[in-house]
């Protein structure tokens, strides 16, 4: 070993301080907390939709929010585990979950073209589409900030994958946090405007996050 | 003699608790391991810089090691990550050829090395990408020299390097 490296090692060892090991559970709690905050802000701004507790929500409301929540959980877990370097990772739960959620807009488009879209809130002219999208993306931003904070503390070795996961996790969890305040529960509204924010968040995160988490 | 997996794992756990002596031994052993790991994939003149870069990365991210998991895959993931980063940054035009017979020596970590080796990462690239990266980023040829050597156009060499490095970056933790 050369002198330069020996000196460097001696210097690093001399200045060594004990560290608190990074626990994936802390990361999950951080994302859960951010999601709860996003939910709380959504409720304050838009009011909680009590109709869902009184049996007024359609089955599609539960299916959509359930699948999106599942995607959020799978992505969040993969994101947190990806912060600890290792080789031979093969799980692709976020990919399969995203594929399941991608069925929703397809169902919405089929519904539109088969004449079921006769409600004012349905279809591409949905007057609250922009509001739902913006609110979901705003909630996603909050969760995304927490995810980036976590990744900066940890050591992701697949930067692009981690960036996609930030977008999928924050987009999904943010959409669910806002989604349970939204009383519009039709196939076309949920399938389009409660899924689009996930895609927007994923693409935005892929573009913005890498320089923030590279180490 | 490079420490075995259990010893390295124990040393790292002690280092996380602030044991300076254990940390000194760990970094020295990790440095030797990294030298062997990179030997055939980095020009000798850049080897020590890269090893030191990884040692600094280990220091900065030591809190991310989980003592209940093996140490060498953790180290190898960081080593791969820094190696791909190194290939992206370094554009060396003059470098000594790496000797093909510079084989990895037999050791207790042979199996681990085989599992996490950089050679395997190259196996995921197509032949043209692997050749372009090998010639330009590792052997230090210019784009023009690599183009003449391979028969690929200069543009194609650049494209193959770009795509190959992008693919390597996605394989850092995925590939065994």
User: If you compute it from the alpha carbons, what radius of gyration of chain B comes out, rounded to the nearest whole angstrom?
Assistant: 17 Å
Q: What's the average pLDDT of chain A?
A: 90
Most extensive chain interface and residues per partner = A-B, 36 and 45 residues
Order of helices and strands of chain A: HHHHHHHHH
Uncertain regions of chain A: pLDDT < 50 for 5+ in a row? none
Sheet/helix structural class of chain B = mainly alpha
Broad shape of chain A: elongated
Helices and strands in order:
The complex is a heterodimer of chains A (215) and B (176).
Chain A: H1 3-14, H2 24-46, H3 59-81, H4 93-113, H5 129-153, H6 159-179, H7 187-193, H8 196-208, H9 210-213
Chain B: H1 5-16, H2 20-38, H3 44-60, H4 71-89, H5 110-116, H6 118-123, H7 127-138, H8 143-150, H9 154-171
Helix pairs in contact in B: 1-2, 2-3, 3-4, 7-8, 7-9, 8-9
Notes on the protein architecture:
The complex is a heterodimer of chains A (215) and B (176). Chain A is mainly alpha-helical and 215 residues long. Helix content of chain A is 69%, strand content 0%. With 176 residues, chain B is mainly alpha-helical. Helix content of chain B is 67%, strand content 0%. Chain B has nine helices and no strands. The longest helix of chain B has 19 residues, at 20-38. The radius of gyration of chain B is 17 Å and the shape is elongated. In chain B, 39% of the residues are buried. At the A-B interface, helix 1 and helix 6 of A face helix 2, helix 3 and helix 4 of B.
């Amino acid at each position: 070993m050369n002198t330069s490296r020996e000196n460097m090692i001696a210097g690093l060892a001399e200045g060594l301080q004990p560290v608190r090991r990074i626990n994936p559970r802390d990361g999950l709690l951080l994302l859960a907390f951010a999601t709860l905050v996003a939910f709380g802000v959504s409720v304050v701004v838009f009011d909680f939709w009590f109709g869902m507790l009184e049996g007024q929500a359609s089955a599609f409301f539960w299916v959509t929010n359930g699948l999106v929540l599942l995607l959020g959980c799978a992505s969040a877990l993969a994101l947190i585990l990806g912060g600890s370097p290792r080789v031979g990772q093969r799980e692709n739960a976020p990919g399969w979950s995203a594929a399941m959620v991608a069925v929703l807009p397809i169902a919405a488009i089929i519904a539109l073209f088969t004449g079921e879209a006769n409600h004012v809130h349905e279809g591409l002219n949905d007057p609250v589409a922009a509001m739902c999208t913006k609110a979901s993306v705003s909630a996603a931003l909050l969760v995304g900030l927490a995810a980036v904070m976590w990744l900066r503390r940890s050591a992701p070795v697949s930067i692009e994958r981690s960036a996609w996961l930030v977008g999928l996790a924050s987009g999904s969890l943010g959409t669910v946090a806002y989604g349970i305040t939204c009383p519009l529960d039709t196939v076309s509204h949920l399938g389009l405007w409660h899924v689009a924010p996930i895609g927007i968040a994923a693409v935005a995160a892929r573009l913005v996050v890498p320089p923030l988490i590279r180490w | 003699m490079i420490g075995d997996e259990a010893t390295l794992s124990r040393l790292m756990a002690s280092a996380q608790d602030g044991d300076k002596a254990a940390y000194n031994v760990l970094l020295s052993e990790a440095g030797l391991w990294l030298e062997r790991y990179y030997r055939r994939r980095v020009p000798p003149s850049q080897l020590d810089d890269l090893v030191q870069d990884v040692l600094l990365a280990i220091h900065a991210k030591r809190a991310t090691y989980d003592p209940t998991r093996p140490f060498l895959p953790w180290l190898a993931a960081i080593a791969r990550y820094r190696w791909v980063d190194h290939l992206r940054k370094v554009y060396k035009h003059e470098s000594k050829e790496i000797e093909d017979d510079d084989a990895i020596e037999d050791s207790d970590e042979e199996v681990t090395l085989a599992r996490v080796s950089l050679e395997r990462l190259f196996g995921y690239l197509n032949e043209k990408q692997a050749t372009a990266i090998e010639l330009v980023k590792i052997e230090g040829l210019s784009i023009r020299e690599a183009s003449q050597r391979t028969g690929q156009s200069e543009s194609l060499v650049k494209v193959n390097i770009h795509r190959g490095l992008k693919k390597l970056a996605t394989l850092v933790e995925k590939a065994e």
